[in-house]
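hi! just following up on the protien thing from before. the input was this:
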Amino acid sequence: MHKSHRRALALLTMLCLTLSLALCAQALEPSGEPARRGIDVSEWQGSIDFARVRDAGIEIVYIRAGAGGDYADPDFRTNYENAKAAGLKIGFYHYVTARSSAEAEQQARYFVSLIGGTVPDCRLAMDFETFGSLSREQTNEIALVFLETVEQLTGKSTVVYTDAYNARAVWNDAVAERPLWVAQYGVDTPEDNGKWDSWVGFQYSDRGRVDGIRGNVDLDWFTDGILLGEQDEIPHTQHHILYRVRRGDTLWRIARRYGTTVEKLAELNHIADPNRIFVGQMLEIPSKSIVPVTYTVKRGDTLWGIARRYHTTVSQLAGINHIKNPNLIYVGQTIKI
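and the predicted 3d structure came back as:
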């Protein structure tokens, strides 16, 4: 072989080796040996046989407690009690929809109120995925308020659940002080993000199959870094939700929606004239009055129209209902409001 050809081949080999090493360096390593198989579940999995889940080799289950400031997962308590009885290690997560620091604090308090009286084994997880028109700075501020409020109220450590893209592009160093539970599908190891140097949770599929569960379920690997040092009971807390008055609202309509009375709302919010509330006003509503609202899609409906009718947003409805394409809903579909 000609010398120049050998030199070119050597250079090419060195380049390939360098690129291979660089690609390896871009992989995010686990915080320890990822020896624990896990799943995360919500009402979407329906009735779960946790004994069969355990026998299938699953050790850890993360259970959704709720979403936003007023939605409790209807299967939360049942899932918790049955998973506990099966001897699984348990964590809880909350789907955050806050658009301000005040809403973040309220949603954190609501999360803590939902898990009161439980004994988790794993860090409490923040699931904050959709940001709407929030800036990066606002998003991080909301996340920090949520995390810090949960930590203060429970005395428990937290973990940040996020996908690989947001881990790299959205979260700042303050949020990254908490451990990472990262979602990235179709890879053996999640990519480096420049913020975290390791992960304690890796969600590698949203289409997994596990004995004891009908249909798909998220699959995870966890390290021991996901576990809490001590397992003690989350204290029960008193709680009110916050509601932002929107155009067309009346105190009577709000009271009816949340199963309370105009008199109670007026007294709690120091409203002298119940006929006078204004757009943007924040109202406290007793948490015992929370009644999950659902809507059945009819011919001609759009998610935008439903959001407008119920004084919410398309992004919030899409998030709560796990709707990937807001332009695709179907007649007969049940939408949680």
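Residues 16-25 have pLDDT under 50 and may be disordered.
The first strand starts at residue 36 and ends at 41.
cheers
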